[in-house]
Design a protein that fits this description.
The complex is a heterodimer of chains A (about 375) and B (about 150). Chain A contains 13 helices and twelve strands. Helix content of chain A is about 35%, strand content about 20%. With about 375 residues, chain A is of the alpha/beta class. Chain A has helices spanning about 25-40, 65, 85-95, 125-130, 135-150, 155-170, 185-190, 215-220, 260-270, 285-295, 305-310, 325-330, 335-350; strands at about 5-20, 50-55, 75, 100-110, 190-195, 195-200, 205-215, 230-235, 250, 280, 365-370, 375-384. Chain A has a single domain, classed as Peroxisomal Thiolase, Chain A, domain 1, CATH 3.40.47. Chain B has one domain. In chain B, the strands form two sheets. In chain B, strands 6-7-8-10-9 form a five-stranded mixed β-barrel. In chain B, strands 2, 3, 4 and 5 form a four-stranded antiparallel β-sheet that branches. In chain B, strand 2 and strand 3 form a beta hairpin. Classes of the chains: A alpha/beta (about 375), B mainly beta (about 150). The interface between A and B is large, with 39 and 43 residues.
């Protein structure tokens, strides 16, 4: 074995996604944490490191008051859509360095209905940018896929198929928010929000929480049959030339996206390639994102998505199932919880405990990718 | 409304020069990178040797969308959703310089296509009609003749 210790996920917990009036985000976090501890067969006082966060629902370490004040080192993370991925990166580093034996990672959030309304000043932009109606993530996603469709011959039907798959998979997931299947036609003819993206091609800000228990060494060997190894986790921010949200201008000279960089780093660290991936959870804040992230992560070539998606290869029974729990489209996007939801789903799938949405064998290697403003991405490689 | 009477929505974003509106960017003296709006250091090579540059008024449409729903206010200046009209947004590539994000003067998807020639024009700032406050936008270059 190498000098770096194996790190595994031995417990997972989730608070259902959706709308939960009267339930604070921190309470959802505590529910998810207790559920993960119980799944791992570990007591809270045995956990010797924790990391977690939310974007808009409070400090993660406040959950310790609900779980018990044990003096545990707890790092609060606030890193936009990469909050969960950053918390996971931190815990993975602590364990693989031997600085902790058992770690808890928690992500949660609670957002009001409607599109996010960030303020320009928080993003280094003048107030004019928001006053003139440019401060919308939905515009960026629309313009990115619009350009991509013209360069790589992706059809509107493919965008609709991505959303139809998400709602179909969500219908088979008891923890999902949107559980009603929608046809490709219903999706295409729903209200246009930002050309070429219609209402049902976008996810909505929502609520939910996810927690994971990570272990190394002896604690890992205690429960080998249910362990899913976290082979690597990498996160990156944007490089000069990458096309990102909230950009009053972009350079003509282009550069790989933070997702491409993070995915390449995660695969290199794991010694596992994109061709080995059996199942993937990709950031699908709208259908176009899933299409583009498929190629940015290296899971296919640019332009190959049209055939892959039209042929059903990314369906649960397909060659490369993608977003088997319904993704952001069916689960909504509680920012702090989203990245960890992806890992939760991979663990369920690799264990063979995904119920009605279980993917067929082989299922040895899973991959997750989360992306957020203003150009951050976190990717992880998991295996049995 | 005369150009001279118009009040820019923000200082240093665009200027009136020679009877025209020009976007004000910056250029790095070390690596040549052009940015908009102007900034005090180079985002590529970190150099502080940057100077103001008036950007080209013409370019081609690199990508676009139509904003079909009213943005939340704040930060959007127009806080009456009933008065909202969809508007176009795009990136216009100024050859050899930079791709600039801008409002578009047309909101009809049938009239927008990637690669079409566009030209800079001042328009009344959203929510500020009648006040003389203007922002920048791009219109199809063919419309600029009239």
């Amino acid at each position: 074995m190498t000098g770096v210790e194996d790190v595994g996920i031995i417990g997972i917990g989730i608070h259902p996604f959706g709308r939960h009036p009267g339930v604070p985000g921190l309470e959802m976090a505590a529910v998810a944490a207790r559920s993960a501890l119980s799944d791992a067969g570990v007591r809270w006082e045995e956990i010797d490191f924790a990391a977690g966060g939310s974007d808009a629902a409070g400090n993660a370490d406040t959950t310790v008051a609900a779980l018990g004040l044990t003096g545990i080192p707890f790092i609060n993370v606030k890193n936009g859509c990469a909050t969960g991925g950053s918390a996971l990166t931190t815990a993975h580093a602590m364990l693989s360095a031997g600085a902790a034996d058992l770690a808890l990672v928690v992500g949660f959030d609670k957002h009001p209905p409607g599109a996010f309304n960030p303020l320009p000043e928080d993003w280094g932009l003048g107030s004019w940018y928001g006053e003139t109606g440019l401060m919308l993530t939905t515009q960026f996603f629309a313009m990115k896929i619009q350009r991509y469709m013209s360069e790589h011959a992706i059809s509107a039907s493919t965008l609709a198929k991505v959303a139809a798959k998400a709602f179909r998979n969500g219908a088979a997931n008891p923890n999902a928010w949107r559980r009603k299947p929608l046809s490709e036609q219903e999706i295409l003819s729903s209200r246009m929000l930002n050309h070429p993206l219609t209402q049902y091609m976008f996810c909505s800000p929502g609520e939910g929480a996810v927690a994971l228990v990570l272990a190394r060494g002896k604690r890992l060997r205690d429960s080998p049959q249910r362990t899913v190894y976290l082979r690597s986790v990498a996160f990156r921010t944007r490089k000069f030339g990458s096309f990102e949200v909230f950009s009053p201008s972009i350079p003509i000279q282009s550069a790989p996206s933070p997702t491409a960089e993070a995915a390449a780093a995660a695969f290199a660290q794991a010694g596992i390639g994109p061709d080995d991936v059996d199942i993937a959870q990709l950031q699908d804040t709208e259908s176009g994102a899933e299409v583009m992230h498929l190629a940015e992560t290296g899971l296919c070539q640019h332009g190959e998505q049209e055939l892959l998606i039209q042929s059903g290869a990314t369906e649960i029974a397909g060659r490369l199932p993608v977003n088997t729990d319904g993704g952001c489209l069916a689960n909504g996007e509680p920012i702090g919880a989203s990245g960890l939801r992806q890992v939760h789903e991979i663990v369920l799938q690799l264990r063979g405990e995904a119920g009605a949405r279980q993917t067929p064998e082989p299922r040895r290697v899973g991959f997750t990718q989360v992306y957020g403003a203003p150009g951050v991405s976190a990717c992880a490689v998991l295996s049995r | 409304m005369s150009l001279a009477a118009a009040k820019p929505i923000a200082e240093g974003l665009f200027v009136h020069a020679g009877g025209e509106v020009r976007l004000l960017g910056s250029q790095c003296g070390q690596c040549g990178v052009v940015t908009f709006p102007k900034q005090a250091s180079c985002p590529r090579c970190t150099s502080l040797d940057v100077s103001d540059r008036l950007l080209s008024r013409q370019g081609t449409l690199w990508s676009w969308t139509i904003q079909c729903f009213p943005p939340k206010s704040p930060p959007y200046a127009l806080d009456d959703p009933d008065a909202f009209e969809p508007f176009g947004v795009g990136y216009v590539e100024l050859p050899g310089e930079v791709r600039v994000e801008a409002l578009l003067t047309i909101a009809d998807p049938e009239k927008l296509r990637i690669g079409m020639r566009m030209e800079l024009t001042p328009i009344p700032a959203p929510g500020a009609e009648g006040s003389g406050v203007v922002t920048y936008a791009f219109q199809p270059a063919d419309e600029a003749i009239s």
